[in-house]
Amino acid sequence: MPVAQGVWDNARARSVLRSMFDAAVASADPFRVLAGHLPPKPRGRCVVVGAGKASAAMAAALEAAWPDVVLEGVVVTRDGHAVPTRHVRILEASHPVPDHRSEVAAKAVMQAVQGLGPDDLVIALISGGGSSLLALPAAGLTLDDKRVLGKQLLHSGATIAEMNTVRRALSAIKGGRLALAASPAQVLTLVISDVPGDDPAVIASGPTVPPPGKAEDALRIVERYRLDLSPSVRQALERGVAEQKAQNGLVDPRNRVVMIATPLMALKAAADVARQHGITPLVLGDALEGESQFAGIVLGGMARSVHAHGLPVQAPAVLLSGGETTVTIRAGEAVGKGGRNTEFLLSCAQFLGGEAGIWGLAGDSDGIDGTEDAAGAIFAPDTLARAAQKGYMAESFLHAHNSYMFFKALDDLVMTGPTLTNVNDIRLLLIA
């Protein structure tokens, strides 16, 4: 078993950080975790539906676990995340902004659960990213209405929970409406969580789960962020208030929701690897939110305290955190290429100023940080110096939200390709 002895250098630190990140992602592999959560096989039909970045892999894992069950149904995943299946149909659509395929897919999913009886079982495979992949507008709306509002939300600074609250209110399939359409069949929802708190009503906007809070919450959110609503969108939100109240009491008590992978489970898997290397892990939480740049400064300050004072933990140590930070693009700002993880890392590296003995890795567990092709990146004590040799100043790249290009120029991007799962972001700060 390796231990944290001897000299820490860039090669060793990078290797250990990458092994922790890979372990976190592997903990949410559907082929590892799904089979142990399946119920007794149904007497009637078994219909499989789902949406999310991991849904296709989840469907393949279900087929592998139940090879003697005749499965049927359809799931939708993000472009590039499809895997071969024998029975369940796999569709692809756009993420994070829905396209016409998202609407086609949502209609196919709703059609798959029609005409079922009480002996039938619907297994809903839900993971992060499902909100944009199941885009069935509420009555009176078009997909363009939802797409315009979705773009506003992405650039508003709203949290993922807030964005999903609005999406749910404008949908004909989310907020438990898929489960209502499947009645009187029983619905088992297997979930890979990507949101703080693991609320199943928030993940993919909860197509099989009654919405939390009040219907009025969506209206409060659009007002808080001063979003420009068309008359049809505002009318649809107002109608949703009455619909949500009428939905209460209609949920089948046999329906169940099971979390099969979560951000905290992923952080614990990374912590186990740290211990194997003689490194003390400190899990700061799986629900950190806020601006990526601010998070980089705060966690960088904690890493500096560990390095200088041995507080709140003695080095060698690793600070682990999950959740989803945000990058708010304000009017008039230059916009380069970057995601919330690379922006977090660049902010952290700039704050630390090349301090020796501190390395960082942050990445999205789905393999794609924002809209770019990297999961995230890694920084080392020599990152800023290497950049300066090329004439790159971290501050200018950070101001332009161009963190992807900064780390690409240094060959410090973390490239995994689609991982076919999603338990949100994994942030690791290693202090020697």
TrEMBL record:
<protein>
    <submittedName>
        <fullName>Glycerate kinase</fullName>
    </submittedName>
</protein>
<dbReference type="GO" id="GO:0008887">
    <property type="term" value="F:glycerate kinase activity"/>
</dbReference>
<dbReference type="Pfam" id="PF05161">
    <property type="entry name" value="MOFRL"/>
</dbReference>
<dbReference type="InterPro" id="IPR038614">
    <property type="entry name" value="GK_N_sf"/>
</dbReference>
<dbReference type="InterPro" id="IPR007835">
    <property type="entry name" value="MOFRL"/>
</dbReference>
<keyword id="KW-0547">Nucleotide-binding</keyword>
<feature type="domain" description="MOFRL">
    <location>
        <begin position="318"/>
        <end position="425"/>
    </location>
</feature>
<keyword id="KW-0067">ATP-binding</keyword>
<keyword id="KW-0808">Transferase</keyword>
<dbReference type="GO" id="GO:0005737">
    <property type="term" value="C:cytoplasm"/>
</dbReference>
<keyword id="KW-0418">Kinase</keyword>
<feature type="domain" description="MOFRL-associated">
    <location>
        <begin position="17"/>
        <end position="238"/>
    </location>
</feature>
<dbReference type="GO" id="GO:0005524">
    <property type="term" value="F:ATP binding"/>
</dbReference>
<dbReference type="Pfam" id="PF13660">
    <property type="entry name" value="DUF4147"/>
</dbReference>
<dbReference type="InterPro" id="IPR025286">
    <property type="entry name" value="MOFRL_assoc_dom"/>
</dbReference>
<dbReference type="InterPro" id="IPR037035">
    <property type="entry name" value="GK-like_C_sf"/>
</dbReference>
<dbReference type="InterPro" id="IPR039760">
    <property type="entry name" value="MOFRL_protein"/>
</dbReference>
